[in-house]
Structures are given as C-alpha cells and as structure tokens.
Amino acid sequence: AMVSRSLHSRAARQDCDVNCAVEMVMPLVCNPGHVLMFHKHMNCNCVHIELHNVRRIYKRRHGLRPLGLEVFCSENDFCSDIYLKFDNTADRDEIYYYIATFLENHMTEHTAESYMLQWQRGHLSSYQYLLHLNNLADRSCNDLSQYPVFPWVIADYTSPRLDMTNAATFRDLSKPVGALNKERLDRLLARYRGMPEPSFMYGSHYSSPGYVLFYLVRVAPEHMLCLQNGRYDHADRMFNSIGETWKNCLEGATDFKELIPEFFGTDPSFLENRMSLDLGRRQNGSLVGDVVLPPWATDSSDFLQKHKDALESQYVSEHLHEWIDLVFGFKQRGSEAVAAHNVFHPLTYEGGIDCDRIVDTDQRIAMLTQILEFGQTPTQLFTSPHPQRITPRFQNITRSSSINSPDAELSPGNIGEDSSFEDLTEESRKLAWANMESLKPVSRHKIHKEAVTGIAVSRDGSAVFSTSQDSTLKMFSKELKEFQRSMSFCNMPLSSCLVLADSKTVVCSSWDNNVYFYSIPYGRRQDTLMGHDDAVSKMCWFENTLYTASWDSTVKVWECTSDSSSAHKRSQFNLLGELEHDAGVNTVGLNPAGTLLVSGSKDGTVTIWDTSNYRTLQQIHCHSGTIHHMAFSPDSRHVLSVGADSCMKVIDVQTGMVISSVKAEEEQRCFCWDGNWVLCGGQSGDLLLWDLLTNTVTKRIPAHSGAVTAMWMSELCTTLITGGEDRQIIFWKLQS
C-alpha cells in the first residue's frame, strides 16, 4: 500500500526506530530517499510494508559491493517487494538485523544446501531450484546487472519435432557457452595465452543489462530506450529468432549469453510484439515483430511449455549439476575455472576491484558504471562439486542379506524379487513414513540391568534379541511377550548385535575386544572372533563378510569360510582387509547393495569406502565430537550421521559434500530414515520425527526415561523397537 509523503517529514523521522538514507533500486534507475523503521512496519519512498508480512530478506551485492537489501512479502515470488541500496554496509546490516530480529519466529531460513537436497530428491523442480540459487547468489529482477541467469538447454532449433529421448537434442551443460564451439574456443584460447595479466578468455559476460533487455525489449521497451540513449538497437541485432540467437551464441566472436527465467515461465508476452512497437526493418526487408520460433513449437505458449519440459527432462536432470558448477560452483573461479574454459573479465568477479579505494570521483563513477553495464558473475555458492540429481533410473534398491538392517519385516515370506512386489513395498514404505506421526507404543519390557546397546530380530519376527552394557544377550519372544533366554559371554558390556540371514546365529560385539557367535537352535556360544586391540563398537554383515569397527582405530573385514549355523564345526575367519583410521571407530554401516561402507570416528570424521577394493572414496570431518550413528539412504546416494555435537549431517556420497546440516536441541543417539524423513532417538528419551527438507522437528514422541540408545525398524516401516538407558525395550506400531 502507498502512504503519503508526509511520513518522510521530520516528525515521522523522529518517531521511527531507525532512519537511513537509501536508494530504491529498480531496473536501470535508483531513486534516492529514506527508509524508516517503526515497531511493526517500514516505509521507504512512499512504500509501506508491514513487518509481519515479510517472508524473506536477503543481503545483496550492488555493483559488487555489500550494500543491498531485498525484501520479499511472499514465499515463491520471482520479484521482490522492495530492493534497497545503502551508502554503507553498516547501515544495511542494521536494517537487516532489525527486520530479522522481528521475524526470527516467523521466517524459515534456507541455505543453498537445503535447497540442493530438496532438488536432488525431486521435491523441487529444476526451475524452482535455479530460481532459489539465483536468489541466494544475489541475482534480482530489480537489478539488470545481476538479473537471474538460466542455461540454454536445447541445441535443436531446426527439427519439426523435439525428441527429448535423444541426447543430441540438448546443449552440453558441462561447458560454458563460449566453449561449445571448438573452433571459436581455440581462437579465444590462443588470444588468452598471449594476453598480459590480468588475462581472460571471454571479453563479454553471459549476463548483462544489455542481454537481459535484448530478450525483454517487447515487454520493457522503455528500459531498452533508456539503455540505448532513446533508440532501439539495429533491427538485425534485435531478438528476432530463437534459432538465430542460439546460432550466434555458438558462432559469434563476442556473444556468450545464457538465458533468463522468462524462457521457462508461463507468460509468452516477451516473445510477442503485443504493443505493436516499431522495432525497425531488417536488411531483408522484413519488419521486426514476434520472435520467430523453432519448427517444433506451434506458438509461443507451446514453446515455453516444451522449453520447460526440456529443463525438467531426464537428460537435463542428470547434467544440470555440471552447469551449476560453472555458474554458481567450484568451477567459477581459480584453476578449476581455467580448466573448464570459464574465465571472464576480472571486473565481473566480486573482489576484482575495490571501488571505495579509488580516490578520484570521476574514475570511481566510471568504474562502477563499467561494472554495472558489463555484467557480474554470481556469488559463489558451492566450493566442491555439486551432486547429481537422483533420477528414476538410479533408484534401484538392492536388498541386503543382513536381517539386522531396517530392511527386515516382522513376518515371514516378505523377501521377494518380483518387481511388482518391489513397487508395492516401496509405496508401503512411503505411506508408512507419511503416517509416522501416528506411532504408538504397544508394550514395554524392562529385561536388562543396564542400558540397551543393540536390537536385532529373527527373519520370521518371532524372536527379538538385545544386547546391553550389563554384558548379556537377551532373547525375547514377541508372541509370548516375555524374555526366554539370557546369555553372558564375558564380564564386559556388549555393544551391538545382529541376526544372520539363516536366523540361526546371533553375532554380538563386546568391549572385551571380541565378537561372539551364538547358536539359536543349540542355545550356546558357537565361536569367538578375537581380532581387535580395543573394544569392538559396531558390526555389519553382508553375505559371508563381517565388518567389525573398533576403538583401536580400525575396521576389519572378515570372510566366514564355513557354515556358522553348525553347532559342531567351528567357523573359520579370514582377514580380508584392515581399514585404518586416525581415531577410534564408533559406528559402521553398509549400503543395501553391500558395495559401500561408511565408518564414523570419535574425532568426528566420516569415511566412505569401496568394499570391492577397500579404498577410501570420501573422507569428511563434519562433526566436532564422537559420531554416534550413521546410515546410507535406501538409494545409497546419501549418508546421514548424528554425533555428540548434537548435529545431524547429510553427506552426498558422490561428491563428499555436506548438503544438509542441522543443530538439534539435544544429542541424537540413533535413528532410522528413508532419505527424506528421520526418526531419531534423543538424549532426553524422546523420539523426534525430523523433516530433512525443512530441517524441522514435526513430532516429538515421549518414549524412554533416559537416552534412546538402540533402534530397529521393520522393512515396511510399520513396526519399531527401541531400547534405552532406562533398561527398557519398547515395541511400537503405526496406527492405521
């Protein structure tokens, strides 16, 4: 709503909490004025904004300097409600923190990593994700020198039909526009190598006010006239044809421009001369009218729809991360940019020049004008390779043969290879997680004298096993609802347990440095594996291979060479590998296919290993203390870890990037997850249901009177068993 200019009177300024001189930034013009902050609203140049309506605020660069502030009163709008430029950073920050303090309970803060996780898992479209990245990288539709930038995605503008199953239809997203034509690139590189410092490959940028208005002249002619001193550009240099523009971007000596968001939107007016503007006559005699579309588009709306479909297509989904690396990521600067042929003029980069140090006013204004007109490289958002998007062809889940993982169900006959069964199982899991807030306790049993450390279940679901710091293994009958056996192998705490696929053997790890094999049919210890110099903290099993983690700073890999279900023949264990760490290993886990291993150490380091050759794939120091628990997502693309620092981290397996990090109110000791949702056992004894896409707790469920220390979930995710420091085991069920 507009307010009267009297608000800017001396009296109004005296009544406000904060008063700063600003300029309101609009395309190609900045209007001077004041911003007045009152208790519940702000005013600037007759624009009135109620603070409770503000949904997003962003600090902005303007002219490559940290002077801007942009305010949005809606969650998803492309354009903001107001963009302000301050005289100095201190004034900008004062207004920012004034608004942020008011909004701290009303506004969710999003990071590039949180948006990345949503996009990677298919909860954000590529269009939405690119808008968010542009926003976080200081791009704004109010600032033509930093207008949002989108990629050319299609390379075919001549065919009568657009074939999105053919890779040749699409642009190579791993290269900047200037490197798409090898002959032109060779010429540019020859000039670059002979150029004195500071050298650059491209003399023009991929985004500038001129390029933006080149595309938008039919809807914003006044801006073009302002930029061109009252004239339109020469008719043959206007935006006449999609195909011609693409051809010139491939072959032109100085044309390396990318696209703008309007090419993927729903409003085709920028492609049509609806105002009947006199845009000139071309050399061939034709008048400049509507933009000429490719043969595969029936009209401008059809073009936009197919263009957007291309952006969301399988090919682009699999390769968009490569373009993000160039524009927002680790190939934007330095040696990686040189290797990727992605080096632009130094004035386009933040930090390339400090205008405030230029004493001469005329020189400073000239330099700022050059920066604003030449184009600016987005703020760098990522410094390591961007993960690839998870597309349907990658979502093949291979079942693990260890029944101790969250892939086991409490009923017989659930293991099948039929694809229809797999689909049904997957849908059932999704339904269960969507309904996880309805989790209710069924029964509670105090069968240990100390904290529970591990829970495992037999294949048919009839027997539940638990280990404890009281050094015992307990066998509990689910049907009889009572414990049937108690076994003790040593006088030291047992740290974990698992049931082998034959449902005849339970394996227990112990603080006495040993691993014990217990025969269920014969009710006695069957074997002892002595292989570590300190406590064995955790184990995992795949087919005939056992992985044991220890506080002696190793994970050892053992091959079982005999039938461990036999009561008369002792098993033979061959040491296949010893994976060394810099600190004691507290937890270990396998992906469902058994091809990847992840280990978590006491020094907060996560290490991902290739089980085919025991080589390190990724090593990330991401916690400031001991890692309690970690596990792969069902699709093996991510690892989730929780630690003593109360942090929860999501790591991309492919790149090693921490793509989500959240600090909880308390330590999370154990969890089950499906890639999007996490059910955690906290230090307080409660179960917490986390939505990883928003990093928020959606449900807190009272459970134990001490920390939750062990957790097991059935394959269909409808049954849960938890153990805690209160010595209890609790059975849970989803309510239908």
TrEMBL record:
Keyword list (alphabetical) reads:
Repeat, WD repeat
Q: Which residues form a coiled coil?
A: none
Report each WD repeat as a residue range: 529-568, 578-619, 620-661, 701-736
Q: Which residues belong to any copy of the BEACH domain?
A: 104-389
Recorded hits in SMART domains, A to Z, give:
Beach (SM01026), WD40 (SM00320)
Q: Which segments carry the region annotation Disordered?
A: 401-420
**Entries under CDD domains matching the protein:** Beach (cd06071), WD40 (cd00200)
Name this protein carries in UniProt: Neutral sphingomyelinase activation associated factor
User: From which organism does this entry originate?
Assistant: Oreochromis niloticus (Nile tilapia)
- The record's gene field reads NSMAF
